[in-house]
Amino acid sequence: MEDPWQKAYDFAVTVARKAGEVIRKAGESEIKVSTKSSTVDLVTKTDERVEKIIIGSLKEEFGEGTHCFIGEESVAKGEPCILTHKPTWIIDPVDGTTNFVHGFPFVAVSIAFAVNKQLEFGVIYSCLEDKMYKARNGKGAYCDDELIQVSDVKDINKSIIISEHGTDRSPEKVKKIFSTMQKILCIPVHGLRGSGTAATNMCLVATGAVEAFFEIGIHCWDIAAGAVIVKEAGGVLLDVDGGPFDLMSRRMVSANNEVIARRIIKEIEIFSAERDDDMCEIQLE
Ligand SMILES: O=P(O)(O)OC(CO)CO
Ligand SMILES: [Mg+2]
Q1: What cofactor does this chain's UniProt record say it requires (predicted)?
Q2: What ipTM was assigned to the predicted interfaces of this complex?
């Protein structure tokens, strides 16, 4: 049977590579938007420029009317962040903007595609490492055309876990984040890590370099592509309360298997994060 989204998948890989080249060459890491209230969420002109390039290329190829676009910088400017049944691209032009600003060497372009609210494929280009991760629903996950697979570790004591500190600096949330990390570290696990980009963190789960990555406060564009890649590499995705993964909920546990995921979930101190689709007043469909 003909694959209806093959062309879109191939195009996403091409666009992600092109975007990554722009990021690598970009001299512009000047912070354009920085702190607002208690969050520290950096944005640079490169974030905006790269998102324009990605969405512009996709619109030119697939038409503006039939496909929808959720992009980090477009949403920041007031575009809707609602997943409808229409073919929808979910884009983070520069995942790891803080890394980009500081020259910390993990920065990723993340492009996912959903139809009927189901993720069809995800592409993550870790552009400073020059590694292309990609996965299609039901067709496995790849890094630079090599099949990748999650680790087979089931013993939490033999695991490495990734989490991040997030962008919210309100003391009560930071306290919960550190308390969770302390509890997980003292299970004990082999180590805690964090690359500074959710997309790359999920690729590290998918390749088996770590057993799990969890975070509260991330957005759909940080994790949509990674969700497909982790799942296709044999991993699992769950909500931090143990329920089903919800792309718009801003919280997620991705792990090599359910045993590891559920062991971590036991330690997570949950705090509130406004849903991505609650931030938008416009309701589509
Ligand atoms: O750098 P960005 O795109 O803001 O994303 C962060 C999460 O907020 C890292 O994943
Ligand atoms: Mg991001």
Answers
A1: Mg(2+)
A2: 0.97
